[in-house]
Specification:
Structural class of chain A: alpha/beta
Distance between the termini of chain A: 40 Å
Strand order of the largest sheet of chain A: 6-7-8-3-9-10
Oligomer: heterodimer
Strand content of chain B: under 5%
Order of helices and strands of chain B: HHEEHHHHHHHHH
Radius of gyration of chain A: 22 Å
CATH class of the largest domain in chain A: Alpha Beta
Number of helices of chain B: 11
Largest sheet of chain B: 2 strands, antiparallel
Number of domains of chain A: 2
Shape of chain B: globular
Helix content of chain B: over 70%
Distance between the termini of chain B: 32 Å
CATH topology of the largest domain in chain A: Rossmann fold
Helix content of chain A: 25-40%
Number of domains of chain B: 1
Largest sheet of chain A: 6 strands, mixed
Radius of gyration of chain B: 19 Å
């Protein structure tokens, strides 16, 4: 059963193609991540799906419904957490939930009961009568997710669920999202954090400049683009120029990131490194960040070509 | 499955639940600051009414066809104050809600822009009505307006809410900043408050200015209110009522169009 389907979706703002022919499918119960830097087109896709932004080209479907034609019915099945949270500072925590519940179609009584449920689920019960402004960043985000759950949606869209949160709040949000996943809710999320995508998502689309560069499970993507093992080289006496020259000569895949040279492409064993003096080498497992660097690097070169 | 997930038919209709829920949210927000709201609705207009009716009224004396100056000016102040409430709600408060992503959140529910606009106008009407009951209540207590005129004044306030709520929404939708938004008060609300036959009859204005004053959107509402207060309604009041209806019919689709442009990108 397909929960979300995008067919060659395009979003233009004047001359800018923010989303440039994107296609993907999300199965029911799956957590699907759009991973990419700011400006990759992730938010535009989510806003089009939520009916907050007109679709410039292609088609979007939610549970088989065409979003452009059935926006209202689509939104009745969708819970959306925007980057801005959109919490209502003039209402209490509980009122935020109840008023939204009433807005999506619950009776006042159903909204009260449902508010209790989601407050309990997000461990916000003791903050029910607080003002929104009194909540920490993590609590605000959890309240925004709780609000999206008021109408018991089939699909939840999360735009960068943990951006701006401290490490502990982040993990808490992750735990709660994992809990939702166990309840068979379909999640579509955007993120620019590799660890978040790796932890939460069943499948990932790596986006850059409005296009999907590749799609797959995190391990698939890693093995396809970065091999299984990688190493970080830190200059320790040797000049960067000399390291660069020797790596180029060896034909290895590498990227310079900050102080490091990140070498990828080892299969089963670390990449075979030529003997270079004056460096410090750390071997590690390849990860999504390596994939992203490899893919986005290529994407950038295409852009410039 | 809850009602939220039942299939809702699409376009060309108003889902009243959306309007009701947004209106309820505004009422709830207002009721949470009722102590402060009380000063807007009661103390501020009471000061204006007393100063004008008792102070300036002493200098003016009787007015041909209207009785005392207080009896002339009271319906004007009732309607002028209601106008400020309607404009404030749909310009200032709406602008703030745009900035705080309130509408963006509402639109993630099965809600449409026309429903948002209707809810805003309905709440502008609500605020205009509360204001009218409060200010007219004062004037009734002092004997400047007969009690029997209250339902009529309330009816006129509905028109105040739709017309000036609509004007407020245009400014909220078009203003790039709070500074730009403040123009709705300096360019619209304040001039209208003084030049719409509220504090003096339009006939005393220079001749060239009179047609402008007659065309101003607050004028027909003040005329209607004064007719209600004096219990004298004539042909001119039919024209006034038609003018108010025409303004509402014009402003609503324009507000929907501009709010859509503002909120959908």
């Amino acid at each position: 059963m397909i929960a979300i389907e995008a067919r060659s979706v395009v979003k233009t703002f004047g001359a800018l193609r923010a989303v440039d022919g994107v296609s993907f499918k999300v199965e029911r119960g799956e957590t699907y991540g759009l991973l990419g830097p700011n400006g990759a087109g992730k938010t535009s896709i989510m806003r089009m799906l939520a009916g907050l932004s007109p679709i410039s080209g292609g088609e979007l479907f939610l549970s088989g419904l065409n979003v452009a034609e059935h926006s209202r019915a689509v939104r009745a099945r969708l819970g959306v957490v925007t980057q801005a949270d959109g919490l209502d500072g003039e209402l209490s925590v509980r009122q935020n939930l109840e008023v939204f519940g009433f807005l999506v179609g619950l009776s006042r009584r159903q909204a009260r009961i449902r508010a209790d449920e989601v407050l309990g689920f997000f461990r916000l019960g003791d903050r029910a009568s607080s003002e929104v402004d009194e909540l920490s960043g993590g609590m605000r985000r959890r309240l925004a997710i709780a609000r999206a759950l008021m109408g018991e949606p089939e699909v939840i869209i999360l735009d960068e669920p943990s951006t701006g949160l401290d490490p502990e709040s982040r993990i808490r949000v992750w735990e709660e999202l994992a809990e939702l996943k166990r309840a068979d809710v379909t999640l579509l999320m955007s993120t620019h954090y590799m660890d978040e995508a790796e932890t939460l998502c069943d499948r990932i689309a790596i986006m850059h400049s409005g296009r999907i560069l590749d799609e797959g499970t995190p391990p698939e993507l890693v093995s396809r683009h970065a091999g299984s093992a990688a190493m970080d080289i830190r200059p320790n006496g040797s000049s960067r120029e000399s390291i660069r020259r020797q790596l180029d000569a060896s034909g290895l895949n590498y990227r310079e990131v900050g102080a490091l040279f990140r070498v990828t492409g080892g299969h089963g064993a670390p990449p075979a490194l030529p003997t270079i003096d004056g460096i410090q080498v750390t071997e590690r497992a390849a990860n999504l960040e390596d994939v992203f660097l490899a893919l986005a690097g290529r994407g950038l070169q295409e852009d410039q070509a | 499955m809850t009602t939220a997930t039942t299939l809702v038919p699409e376009t060309g209709f108003i889902r009243w639940r959306s309007v009701h829920a947004i209106w309820w949210r505004h009422l709830l927000a207002l009721s949470r600051v009722w102590q402060v709201a009380l000063t807007w609705f009661v103390i501020e207009p009471a000061v204006v009414l007393l100063a004008v009716a008792l102070g300036i009224g002493q200098l003016v004396g009787e007015m041909e066809g209207f009785g005392t100056y207080a009896m002339f000016v009271a319906p004007g102040i009732v309607i002028g104050t209601a106008m400020f409430h309607a404009i404030f709600e749909c310009s200032w408060s709406t602008f703030e809600r745009i900035g705080q992503s309130y509408y963006e959140t509402a639109l993630t529910a099965p809600v449409t822009i026309p429903e948002i606009v209707l809810a805003e106008l309905l709440f502008a009407v609500t605020r205009a009505l509360i204001s009218t009951v409060a200010v007219a209540g004062f004037a009734i207590a002092f004997g400047w307006i007969p009690l029997a005129a209250l339902p009529g004044l309330m009816l006129v306030s509905v028109g105040v809410g739709t017309v000036f709520g609509g004007i407020g929404l245009l400014f909220a939708a078009l203003s790039p900043s709070m500074h730009a938004l403040s123009l709705v008060f300096t360019l619209v609300a304040t001039p209208l408050y003084f030049f719409s036959g509220t504090f003096f009859p339009i006939a005393v204005l220079p001749e060239w200015l009179q047609p402008v004053a007659w065309a101003a959107p607050l004028t027909p509402l003040v005329e209607l209110a004064r007719g209600m207060a004096l219990g004298e309604l004539g042909r001119v009041h039919i024209y006034c009522a038609l003018y108010v209806l025409a303004l509402t019919a014009l402003l609503y689709p324009l507000a929907v169009h501009l709010m859509r442009r503002r909120l959908m990108k």
